Structures are given as structure tokens and as C-alpha cells.
Amino acid sequence: MLDCAIIGGGPAGLTAGLYATRGGLKNVTMFEMGMPGGQITQSSEIENYPGFYEHGKTGMDFMDTWQEQCFAFGLKHEMKKIERVAKIGEHFKVTFENGESVEAMTVIVCTGSTPKRTGIKGESELWGKGVSTCATCDGFFYKGKSVAVLGGGDTALEEAHYLSNICVEVNLIHRRDEFRASPSTVDRVKRTENINIITDTIIEEIEGDAMGVTGLKLKNKKTGKASNLEVPGIFIFAGHDVNNAVLKDENDEFICKMNEWGQVVVDLSMKTSISGLFAAGDMRIEAPKQVVVAAGDGATAALQVISYIQEQA
Ligand code: FAD
Ligand code: NAP
Questions:
Q1: Catalytic residue at 4?
Q2: 282 CB-side CA count, 13 A
Q3: Domain count within the chain
Q4: Enclosing domain of residue 80
Q5: Which residues line ligand 2 (CB under 6 A)?
Q6: Least trusted range by pLDDT, from 58-72, 184-198, 203-217
Q7: 169: Cβ–Cβ under 8 A, 6 or more apart, which residues?
Q8: pLDDT, average across residues 36-44
Q9: pLDDT: is 202 or 55 the higher one?
Q10: CATH code (residue 91)
Q11: Can you give the pLDDT at residue 47?
């Protein structure tokens, strides 16, 4: 029986593993279906993690520096995709994709979330080279420049407003003339002078060269009129898929409390509604979706796991 099964090997999972093993737990395995590191390994540059401030270093370089330390105290890694977590009596059964399973006293789920892609021409090719899904991460790279934002939801409008404090102009492009975002957020965006709202408009292509994004080909859906917008960056906020499938039972029901957007409800200790089950990082409610926060969540969850196991003994 594992003391703790950690599912997902991004910043939250790796940090949980470091804290759990350094805190004295002997039998801790992190199940990560790929190489450890998580979604930050897709980033071309990271400059908002304190203590790591080297220009030109990629997310991959950054996560490389985590590996040796996080595994130094006995954390084990198995490259396995987890299908399901179930609580059976006092313990958990963690089932792998191939049907085999392992038992664990506690589980920390850190499977993250995935920004939705739109499929617009050029999006994949220029992903991370001017196409971003994170204004907090990449907004500063466009300080004093003009950028574009796609989307009409709360995230797009809130992030457009955030970018308006950094960029000279924010072109908010939405495919309809009505926004999903809450009326107060729409109102705030409309009152912001340097946000240029472009509605009923689709982005037909994101154009770029070896250096990254250079502009957008736009088309107004009502008039059919085509236009070009020269921008070095576009932020896409088409929603997120929370990677929460491991928390569903055979009947497709979640085993713990979730919010309406499929994020795991946790308290400030990263406890879920099921005792012994914790969730950390981008998949939890109100996650700011930042590495520094995911790492903090992982540490918090691991410290709680240690207390929980001590209480059970
Ligand atoms: P993730 O990093 O998403 O890790 C989850 C892990 O779980 C993945 O490795 C996945 O393979 C694994 N997994 C999922 N399902 C299963 C399963 N069923 N079984 C086994 N393993 C599974 N943040 C910043 O602070 N600064 C930045 O500059 C920054 N830039 C970014 C740039 C890009 C392009 C992207 C995409 C994100 C960026 N972020 C940045 C956000 C940051 O990457 C995330 O907030 C952070 O990685 C979340 O960590 P996490 O551990 O919660 O989840
Ligand atoms: P969302 O509400 O699903 O909005 C996604 C937006 O992207 C929509 O406007 C959608 O257009 C657009 N879109 C999707 N696919 C597209 C495509 N292929 N091409 C062009 N546009 C596309 O996602 P979200 O903004 O991330 O919000 C998710 C949930 O979190 C929402 O329920 C939201 O209220 C909530 N949230 C709340 C807060 C807050 O309360 N402060 C903050 C952030 C998020 P259409 O509108 O035409 O479909």
C-alpha cells in the first residue's frame, strides 16, 4: 500500500512529491503519463517564478532544474496514465489505463487543465511564438505594444482588461455581438479607453514568420468584409478543459464535490470533500493558473497528507 499516490507530474505534483518524501513518507509514487514537468514545458520563456530569472530560458529548461531536487528524497515516478481513483473503505484504489491498480492511503490529484484551442489557421504553428493563453505569463512581453485577444467570456474580458494596463492597445475580437462575460465585466471593458472591441468578427488566419506572430486576417461575419490587423501577439481565451476524468466513477459521476465548471472544490488545505483525497494546482477552484501557485498547492497538500496519515496511525 502506498502512503500517497500523486497523480500528475507538473509543478503541483512534483512539489507534492518533494514535500511528502522530505517530510518522512517512505512510499510515495507520482504517476505521470508523460515526462514530468507539466504544461509549463510548452512555454518559450518564464520570468515570473521567483529565484529563476534568466532571459531566454524556456519552460523546459526551467522544469529540468526541478527534477533532481524533487526526486532526491525517495519520490518514485511511474510513467502511467491513471484511469480512475476510487475510495474503498478507508483506502483508495488507483486504477491504471491497462486495468491494473494500486492501493494508497491518500491521493493527491494534480492533473491540471488544458486551454482549448480554436483550430484557427496558424494557431498550432505559432503556439508559444506569439499565440498565448496566459496574459499573466506573457503579457509583459508586449509592454507598450498592441495585441489581440480572442473570446467573449469572463476570462477573455478580464484578461483584456489586465493587458490594457501593460499594452498600448488591446484589440478584443469576438465572433458574436453579445458577450458571455458578466455585465459588470463587459461594462468595465467598454469603459477602458485602450480596449478596441471588434465584434461579429472571426479570425481566419494567424500570420507569422520565423520570429513569431505578425498579424491576423479578420472577417466580419455580417458584412463579409475582410481586414488585416498587425499585432505581434494574440491571447486566446476559448475556455479550458479541466483534466478531471480520473475523479469520475464507472457511472460517470464525480467522486468528490466539483463546481459547475468541473473544477475540484477544495479548502485552503487542498482537502476535497472526500477525506484523504486532495487536489492541487490548475484543476482546483479559483486556481490562478501559475506555476508558483501550483507548487504552493502541492506543498500544502503534501503537508496535509503527512498530518492525515499521522492522525490515522
Ligand atoms: P500541469 O502543469 O497541467 O500538470 C498536470 C500533469 O498531469 C501533466 O504533466 C499531465 O501529463 C498529467 N496528467 C494529466 N492527466 C493524467 C492522468 N490521467 N494520468 C497521469 N498523468 C496525468 N505559469 C507561470 O507561472 N508562468 C508562465 O510564464 C507560464 N507560462 C505558460 C505558458 C504556456 C504555453 C502554458 C500552457 C502555461 C503557462 N503557465 C505559466 C501556466 C502553468 O504552466 C500552469 O499553471 C502549471 O503548469 C499548472 O501546474 P499543475 O501541476 O497544476 O498542472
Ligand atoms: P467561456 O465562457 O466558455 O468563453 C469562451 C469564449 O471563447 C466564448 O466567448 C466563445 O464564443 C469563444 N470561443 C470558443 N471557441 C471559439 C472559437 N473556436 N473561435 C472563436 N471564439 C471561440 O470560457 P471562460 O471565459 O474561460 O469562462 C469559463 C467559465 O469560467 C465561465 O462559466 C465563466 O463565467 C467562468 N469564469 C468566471 C470568472 C469570474 O467570475 N470572475 C472569471 C473567469 C471565468 P461564444 O461566446 O460565441 O461561444
A1: no
A2: 21
A3: 2
A4: 2-115+240-312
A5: 118, 150-156, 158, 175-176, 180, 237-240, 261
A6: 58-72
A7: 146, 147, 194, 195, 196
A8: 87
A9: 202
A10: 3.50.50.60
A11: 80
Q: Is 121 part of any domain?
A: no
User: Which amino acid is it at 247?
Assistant: L
pLDDT reported for residue 31 = 98
- Whether residues 213 and 255 share a domain: the answer is no
Strands 101-109 and 82-88: unpaired
264-286 residue pLDDT tens? 999 999 999 999 999 999 999 99
Please report which ligand is nearest the Cα atom of 280: 1
Q: Are 86 and 188 in the same domain? A: no
The DSSP-derived string for 80-121 is --EEEEEEETTEEEEEETTS-EEEEEEEEE---EEEPP---B
Closest CA to 243 of 4, 2, 62, 12: 12
3-state SS string over 197-227? EECCEEEEEEEEECCEEEEEEEEECCCCCEE
Q: How far apart are CA 218 and CA 226, in angstroms?
A: 6
Residue 212 grid coordinates:
513569431
What is the C-alpha separation between 47 and 122, in angstroms, rounded?
A: 26
281 and 254 share a domain? yes
Assigned domain for 153 exists: yes
Which contacts (CB < 8 Å, 24+ apart) does range 289-295 have? 289/113, 289/134, 289/136, 290/48, 290/136, 290/137, 291/11, 291/40, 291/46, 291/49, 292/48, 292/49, 292/50, 294/10, 294/11, 294/12, 294/15, 294/38, 294/110, 294/112, 295/11, 295/12, 295/14, 295/15
Q: Give the ligand with the smallest distance to the CA of 8.
A: 1
Task: Examine the domain organization and report whether 195 and 274 are in the same domain.
Answer: no
Of 134, 167, 256, 297, which one is the catalytic site residue? 134
